[in-house]
């Protein structure tokens, strides 16, 4: 979880709220910013005021809420200029697709969009919209344009949406946004490095209908890809079949079977500085795939399996090998199994986690890791997988630096 600092940071934060259901999260954001010692002023579009009352933000911020571009009560009717000059940072949260489009094209037809143009301070946006709107080509073009203008984009996250659909488009949690605004974001600790990540399950076909697989959702691997990207790395993601969307600017190689994942990883590993094997690769695959659907005939049936190739071990044995990080998902004796795997496969690091428990593991949004290397270990406490991934990326960077030294 986000840990608050026991210090007073007299930072001026201008929060601009556009019209989306995620506007309710912005109230918590104001509270967190105030708790960190920031002064907060709030700007709302007319649409935003349909979701949350301005009175809520006035009470939380301790300042009047601004909504009109041409306000006769403002000195010289230039309120947008004075607000823009007051701010140390401007955050638009939630930033709807419409607001992102207006800002990217430089339109200024209301107070929020005019403030964006007038602001000389750092600008952040936290997008929030339906998953289909987020994936629309024009929205992605607008995001890229804003990034080229120096805007920092926070999120969005993946998950259930108010419309009943699931996917990317959820506004980042207030704690995550607060961390960006009040403290330094994830440092560019992997700047200039190339990171290869394998994620998700594999499927080993029995016949044209059935296959053997596991419960891996791929969430941890995808979170690591996003964290490595934020840390400045060029990221390649070899992904098994998952219901996730990869972060923008990540090179994705989609595979299905363990053999396909082996081929993809081995063809790219030598060209990368780091390999993180977060995928749950099948240990065994059927000796033979039936060409027709297997019929239910006898009371019992025997299935003959053969070992799949050990991708992690092969990467670790390469002459020109990347810094190799493995994962161990265990139901018992976690520490012993993880350390045996670390030594037996000649890994630089291994991240172990419990599965089959009530909290964390497969399908969960949260997890905890016990990370081992040859001369030490570190526990990363239960938190959401995005923050956990950032912690692991920083730890990998530290261990790489230590090894080089």
Task: List the SSEs and their pairings.
Blueprint: E1 12-17, H1 23-35, E2 39-44, H2 54-61, H3 79-86, E3 89-95, H4 97-105, H5 111-118, E4 123-127, H6 131-135, H7 137-148, E5 152-153, E6 157-160, E7 166-170, H8 174-182, E8 194-199, E9 204-205, E10 211-212, H9 219-230, E11 234-239, E12 251-254, H10 258-268, E13 274-277, E14 284-286, E15 305-307, H11 311-316, E16 323-330, H12 334-344, E17 349-354, E18 366-373, E19 376-384, H13 385-404
Parallel strand pairs: 1-2, 1-3, 3-4, 4-5, 8-11, 8-13, 11-12, 13-16, 16-17
Antiparallel strand pairs: 6-7, 9-10, 14-15, 17-18, 18-19
Helix pairs in contact: 1-2, 1-8, 3-5, 4-7, 9-13
Explain briefly what this protein structure is.
By secondary structure, the protein is an alpha/beta fold. The protein is 33% helix and 24% strand.
Spatial ordering of strands, largest sheet? 12-11-8-13-16-17-18-19
In percent, how much strand structure appears in the residues? 15-25%
CATH class bucket of the largest domain: Alpha Beta
- Number of DSSP-assigned strands: 19
Which class of secondary structure composition applies to the elements?
Answer: alpha/beta
Biggest pleated-sheet summary: 8 strands, mixed
Number of domains: 2
Q: What name is given to the CATH topology of the largest domain?
A: Rossmann fold
Low-confidence stretches: 1-8
Compute the average pLDDT.
Answer: 88
Shape: elongated
Number of helices: 13
What is the first-to-last residue Cα distance? 32 Å
Please state the second-level CATH architecture of the largest domain: 3-Layer(aba) Sandwich
CATH superfamily of the largest domain: CoaB-like
Query: What is the alpha-carbon Rg in Å?
Result: 24 Å
């Amino acid at each position: 979880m986000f840990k608050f600092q026991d210090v007073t940071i007299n930072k001026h934060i201008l929060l601009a709220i556009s019209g989306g259901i995620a506007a309710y999260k912005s109230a918590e954001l104001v509270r967190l910013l105030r708790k960190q010692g920031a002064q907060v002023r709030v700007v709302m579009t007319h649409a935003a005021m349909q979701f949350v009352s301005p009175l809520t933000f006035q009470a939380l911020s301790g300042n009047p809420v601004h909504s009109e571009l041409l306000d006769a009560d403002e000195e010289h009717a230039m309120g947008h200029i004075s607000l823009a000059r007051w701010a140390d940072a401007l955050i638009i949260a939630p930033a709807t697709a419409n607001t992102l489009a207006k800002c990217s094209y430089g339109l200024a037809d209301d107070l929020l969009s005019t403030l964006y143009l007038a602001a000389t301070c750092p600008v952040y946006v936290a997008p929030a919209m339906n998953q289909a709107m987020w994936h629309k080509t024009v929205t992605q073009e607008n995001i890229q344009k804003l990034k080229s203008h120096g805007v920092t984009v926070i999120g969005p996250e993946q998950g259930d949406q108010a419309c009943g659909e699931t996917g990317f488009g959820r506004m980042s949690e207030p704690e995550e946004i607060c961390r960006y605004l009040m403290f330094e974001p994830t440092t560019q600790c992997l700047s200039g490095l190339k990171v290869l990540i394998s994620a998700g399950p594999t499927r080993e076909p029995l016949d044209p209908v059935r296959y053997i697989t596991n419960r891996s959702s791929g969430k941890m691997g995808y979170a690591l890809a996003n964290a490595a990207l934020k840390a400045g790395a060029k990221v390649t993601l070899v992904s098994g079949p998952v219901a996730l969307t990869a972060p923008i600017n990540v090179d994705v190689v989609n595979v299905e079977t363990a053999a396909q994942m082996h081929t993809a990883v081995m063809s790219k590993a030598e060209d990368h500085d780091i390999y993180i094997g977060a995928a749950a690769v099948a240990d065994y695959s059927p000796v033979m795939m039936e060409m027709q659907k297997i019929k239910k005939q006898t009371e019992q049936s025997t299935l003959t399996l053969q070992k799949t190739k050990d991708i992690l071990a092969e990467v670790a044995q390469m002459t020109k090998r990347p810094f190799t990080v493995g994962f161990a998902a265990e139901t018992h004796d976690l520490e012993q199994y993880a350390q045996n795997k670390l030594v037996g496969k000649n890994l630089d690091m291994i991240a172990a986690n419990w599965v089959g428990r009530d909290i964390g593991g497969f399908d969960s949004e949260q997890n905890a890791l016990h990370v081992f290397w040859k001369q030490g270990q570190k526990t990363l406490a239960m938190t959401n997988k995005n923050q956990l991934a950032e912690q692991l990326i920083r730890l990998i960077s530290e261990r790489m630096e230590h090894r080089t030294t």
